[in-house]
Amino acid sequence: MDSTARQQIARELCQRLATTRTDVVVAGMLAPSAPLTDFEPLELLVVVANTVTRTRRSFLMQDVVVTVHSIARAELESVLRAPDLRWPQWLHWLATLQPLIGQPEQVNRWLAEASAVAEQDFHRRILAHLPDLVFACYGELRAAAARLSDRDALLLVPVLLTEMHTALCLINRRWPTQRGFAGLEESFAFPLQPRDWPQLATDLLGAHHLADIARLAGALVSQYWQLLARCSLTIEHHQTIATTPL
Q: Which of 36, 71, 111, 129 is deepest in the core (most CB within 10 A)?
């Protein structure tokens, strides 16, 4: 499916959506990875004024997977003001959106609103969410190493790197503009990053031996802790049940 056919299908799907929902604020196609191939999924983003009961749905059309992401406007604007783990993904969608119906000018307003949040306030907002990233995955990887399970460790490497990338997007208040490894590479130029992040990430992706994976992951997480300290992002270590945030 070439780019012209993709855009025409995306436009017709958005127009059909507008007939089933009269509250569409903006809808369009997400820019695919470059160079375009016949196998790229077709992704749509729909922002609506009212509530969303199903945030994602996928179906096959002409041998291409079509995925529709739906976001309620109020929820989107809440995340722009008070960022959480959805912030990098949702901002990536907005930044790569090719509007087809609705109010295209609203997209730039949302991007500007996201950029306007001060660093100190942004970091204060994300602090409670950072424990959800990196640490549990690294714990699983250490457990795999203790069990001498190299296959489990290999499966955990891309998860660890993806979560580290999300954490760095949040810490730097930057959203990815590309997908896959190209998106990961963007973070290599972030001003705030673990020491040796580009080398450690690349070496981890290429590592196949359990000892190398464990060593590189340990070095990366150690440097990540130091980054958090430099940014005054203090992750609480609870010693008693009474202090846990439950």
A: 71
Which residue's entry shows tokens 């191939």? 37
Domain that holds residue 89: 3-117
- Asked, for residue 50, whether it belongs to a domain, the answer is yes
Collapsing DSSP to helix, strand or coil, 97 comes out as strand
pTM score > 0.90 for this model? yes
Reading the chain (246 residues) residue by residue, the pLDDT tens digits are 778 888 899 999 999 999 999 999 999 999 988 788 888 899 999 999 999 889 999 999 988 899 999 999 999 999 999 999 999 999 999 999 999 999 999 999 999 999 999 999 999 999 999 999 999 999 999 999 999 999 999 999 999 999 999 999 999 999 999 999 999 999 999 999 999 999 999 999 999 999 999 999 999 999 999 999 999 999 988 889 988 888
Name the DSSP class of 49.
Answer: S
Q: What is the DSSP letter of 32?
A: P
- Report the alpha-carbon distance of residue 171 to residue 14 in Å, rounded: 34
3-state secondary structure of 28: strand
Give the three-class secondary structure for 99. Answer: strand
CATH of the domain at 148: 1.20.120.330
Distance, CA of 108 to CA of 173 (rounded, Å)? 16
Same domain, 159 and 210: yes
Which residue among 117, 143, 158 closes a domain? Answer: 117
Looking at the fold, whether 87 and 127 belong to one and the same domain comes out as no
Distance in angstroms (rounded) separating the CA atoms of residues 231 and 42: 38
Q: Is the dihedral of CA 80, 176, 190, 209 positive or negative?
A: positive
Asked which of 62, 95, 117 is the last residue of a domain, the reply is 117
Residues 77 and 173 in one domain: no
